[in-house]
Amino acid sequence: MPCLSLPVKRLALLSLVLVSTAWGQTDIREIVRKSIVNYERAWKAQVNWAWTQTDTTASDDKEEVDVSEFVPLYGTPYERLIEKNGHPLTAEEQRVENHKYRKALKERERESPSERAARILKFENGRAFILEVPEAYNFELLGEETLDGRPAWVIGMKPRPGFVPTVAHAAMLEHIEGKLWIDKEDVQWAKAEAHVTETISIGWILARIGPGARFGVEQIRVANGLWMPKTLTIAGTAHVLLVHAKRLDERLAYSDYHEVDSASAEKR
């Protein structure tokens, strides 16, 4: 799913008939609802963690790889480019990144309490549509698989007729269907796959993503009960500014997760 951030691998089928008999639709929805609560908790916990992101984008037979580090900066993550097009930054590019960081640091240091709260709320609301998932879909328990040695429920998702979105971006859920792999012990998303069934719009005129576009998320357990993204993949076609058709082929890989003291990060 897009922004989503706003997810890990497992295999091995178990008695589908027995599992389907044991679990009703309401139970499956409750599993999904609990997984959303845990997903949000992990998302908010990111403000106390640092990590590295490798962004690989392919288009027109050309591949670009950018590497960034994310660090907490007064309540929300700050992205700092450390490699561009597969190469270390030049002295000038490093100077620009340092300038951008110092500027962001000063701006956040000078924020009033209300300004900081508004910035943090905007960061959190960017993924608020995830909270609508339990009501936006009908779910089907497809069975169980083992991912990285851990059992997970495999749950199919199809848009629920009559769903009325209540938050920004949630309307696009009616044009997306897919599957969730939910870790049975932690009730966390281990993996998610989705595809677009009808054109979805991002913003008024920013872009439209066409049918057939596919999204994949894998997550990794970084601490007791805490899961964070491992990979995010996007493949499909978008019309940017409703005119220019652009092939989407992007893979984000996340690594080197480590918990940090916000105060120490802000002194960097």
Structure description:
By secondary structure, the chain is an alpha+beta fold. The chain has one domain. Strands 1, 2, 3, 4, 5, 6, 7, 8, 9, 10, 11, 12 and 13 form a 13-stranded antiparallel β-sheet that branches. β11 and β12 form a beta hairpin. The two termini are about 35 Å apart.
What characteristics describe this protein?
single chain; 268 residues; 6 helices
Tell me the major beta sheet. 13 strands, antiparallel
Strand content: 35-45%
Global mean pLDDT: 83
- What is the number of domains? 1
Q: How many beta-strand runs?
A: 13
Terminal residue distance:
33 Å
Number of distinct helices? 6
Kindly state the percentage of residues in helix. 25-40%
Helix and strand content put the structural class at: alpha+beta
List the helices and strands and how they pair.
Layout (H helix, E strand, L loop, with lengths): L15 H7 L2 H21 L3 E11 L2 E12 L2 E9 L2 E2 L2 H19 L3 H13 L7 H4 E11 L2 E10 L16 E8 L5 E8 L3 E3 L4 E3 L4 E10 L2 E15 L3 E16 L2 H4 L3
Antiparallel strand pairs: 1-2, 1-13, 2-3, 3-4, 5-6, 6-7, 7-8, 8-11, 9-10, 10-12, 11-12, 12-13
